[in-house]
Amino acid sequence: MTDAPASPDERIAYRTCPLCEATCGLEITVRDGRVHRIRGDRDDVFSHGFICPKGSTLQHLHEDPDRLRRPLVRRGVDADGAPVFEEVDWDEAWRIVAERFAAVRDAHGADAVALYLGNPNAHLLASGTHMRALIRSMGSRKLFSASTVDQMPRHVASGHLYGDPVAIPVPDLDRTDMLVVIGADPYTSNGSVCTAPGFPDRIEAMQARGGTLWVIDPRRSRTAQQADVHLRPRPGTDAVLLAAVVRHLFATGTARTGRLAAAAPDLDRVAAFVEPFTPEAAARVTGVAAADITALADALVAAPTAAVYGRIGTNTVEFGTLTAWLIDVVNMCTGNVDRPGGVMFARPAAERCRGDRPGGRGYRVGRWTSRVNGRPEVQGELPVADLADEILVPGEGRIRLLVTVAGNPVLSCPDGERLDEALASLDAMIAVDIYLNETTRHADVILPPPSSLEKSHYDLALYQFHVRNVAHWSPPVFPPSGPLEEDILAKLAAIAAGLGPDADPALVHDQILRSLVEAEVANEHSPIAGRDPDEILAAVDGDTPADRVLDVLVRTGPYGDGFGARPDGLSLAVLAAHPHGVDLGPLEPRLPGRLRTPSGVIEVLADPFVTELARLAQRLDHEPPPLVLIGRRQLRSNNSWMHNLEVLVRGSNRCTLQVNPADAERLGLVDGGDAEVRSRVGAVRAPVEITDDVPPGVVSLPHGWGHDRPGTRLGVARAHAGVNSNRLTDPAIVDPLSGNAVLNGIPVEVVPAPADTPVSAASAPA
Description:
Layout: E1 10-16, E2 25-31, E3 34-40, H1 58-63, E4 72-77, E5 83-87, H2 90-108, E6 113-117, H3 125-138, E7 143-145, H4 152-162, E8 170-171, E9 178-182, H5 186-189, H6 199-208, E10 212-216, H7 222-226, E11 229-231, H8 238-251, H9 270-273, H10 279-286, H11 290-302, E12 307-310, H12 312-315, H13 320-333, E13 343-344, H14 387-392, E14 401-405, H15 409-412, H16 416-424, E15 428-432, E16 445-447, E17 469-471, H17 485-496, H18 505-522, H19 533-539, H20 545-555, H21 572-576, E18 582-585, H22 607-617, E19 628-630, H23 646-649, E20 657-659, H24 661-667, E21 674-678, E22 683-690, E23 698-700, H25 715-719, E24 746-747, E25 749-752
Parallel strand pairs: 6-7, 6-14, 9-10, 9-12, 10-11, 14-15, 15-16, 19-23, 20-22
Antiparallel strand pairs: 1-2, 2-3, 4-5, 4-16, 8-13, 17-18, 19-24, 20-23, 21-22, 21-25
Helix pairs in contact: 2-17, 3-17, 3-20, 4-13, 8-10, 8-11, 8-13, 10-11, 17-18, 18-20
């Protein structure tokens, strides 16, 4: 049981941590109006008290003196060329926002406006309820997001396979007998596109009950150290290894589909397309012995249940979508898709009810292309690798105004140096952000939303990938110090639609809510089908616009009360009455009803996969680069903005270049000395950390650092600046099926850095 408050001036609040995908429950003790303590909520139905170092820092984030509380307006530059900002009231900020929108749209049209969405939007309730309205109001096809530096290949693979890009099967961690982790480090990240608080505890529980952990990762990560078997392929070759596993299963006659035979009728035809990928050929490419590849395949077949799980290391490579597809094919060929202990589909509380029968419109990409490079649209987005070109290259449709929401693409996106140059050239920029950072320093106006403790929370996006069906809603811990996040997004939407600075955001709120209710009433599968929309609207609960939308989503979802149709069902009120969450039970088989393909079956051999397999086969004889760069995750660093919290960055420098001892000796590098790392597009200087955690031929830099630019208000981050690995990321190379940036396996040259000539932020290899 939880502790009782110690005094009348003390209270305990419960909420879900919004800082990563684990969704851990927090117990927050508030004393005299301030956070006194944060610890894991031991009564949380999902996390059971688990907490990582990030979760305990919400107080520091809330109280950070650098966090913006009022809008900032750019007022020119100082003598050193750094931007000068002034705090203004919200009315003035909105007036300037409206002026900038009007000027650009009147002169260049709606297509000169673009939107960039950063990773934190996946954790924000208001983004889930209100972002689509902003996108529609802007009237532009130029939408970019962190998805194309992170997980877009996984969505594209699922889109083609299952007809729905969020139909992503996740490992049934609590019941599996064998877990294969490829390109992920859940001991550090707690999983991603696989929501599982206490992921390490779940792995160790699996091993305690006799299960085995295989890790496929070039680096000896913390997860790899826990593994029963660790395979270390060359970066970027996971697809070849997995294709060889599939080939071995077919060649030995051990492939088994089980109950998937009807749902995936083309699975046996995959055998012909993986024929070139013999274990011996794969060994030459991957550096993993052929015997180890076949042992993995045999172990998957022998295990009573097994789950192969891949994440960012498999997505941020040239064949990212194909790798995601092959992960699912391996799971299918071992009979482990959609069964307990294998990989399964969550059923979130806010999922739209569409009937439990297969079929749908299917999945399309390429409805339009980027202006300069001609890369296809995916899920309404263009590759963020194209953003700099779309701003800098002259011509009709050139981006003149950029809106960013909770993002820092200068640090997180390819060729950050050129993107920094591009943002400086814009006619106008508007940012919704809590910090004046390396990206928002280019903004004309920065609009700060409330802190994480000043708004309600529900993980609309992440519950789609939970390893157990649960639902948590968290009320604010403190009243908001300014406009709600949804008010800011709604006002921006109204201004983008041409309604001017005095537009009432309530108009947008009402339109979003009414449109949702009317769609549900018209949906034959909804529990409120055929009812009076006004009756439903009158019964909606919630203190904020986002909460009212959530109430409708939950009440019309698969567990909802249907506004009285199912009296024992969920509602916002029920969630509020259960501060530790509501347990909705383990994952259950959902096929074929979860499929949204036109055929009603799994489209295993969709044309894009066949084409990519042929392209991959042509690479079997290619010589690997002598030295490549990979990234790495860190336990106390999920996004770049966390670097401004002293409690998360103190201690030894974690932004180091990890180098294998053999490479260090060959290259003349010394531990603690500086090295210059060069790629085709840029160069950085970083301190060397010699370790056999990385194999020969591989060096590693963490992602999200580089806080050395003038004009920011990030006092702690500047003192722990590090270097920006994305100055090395080449925007010319992307996964062709998804447009995802290639952050791993980048060919580089590493040399000792001259002591008297530090590498410039803008330097590039000769």
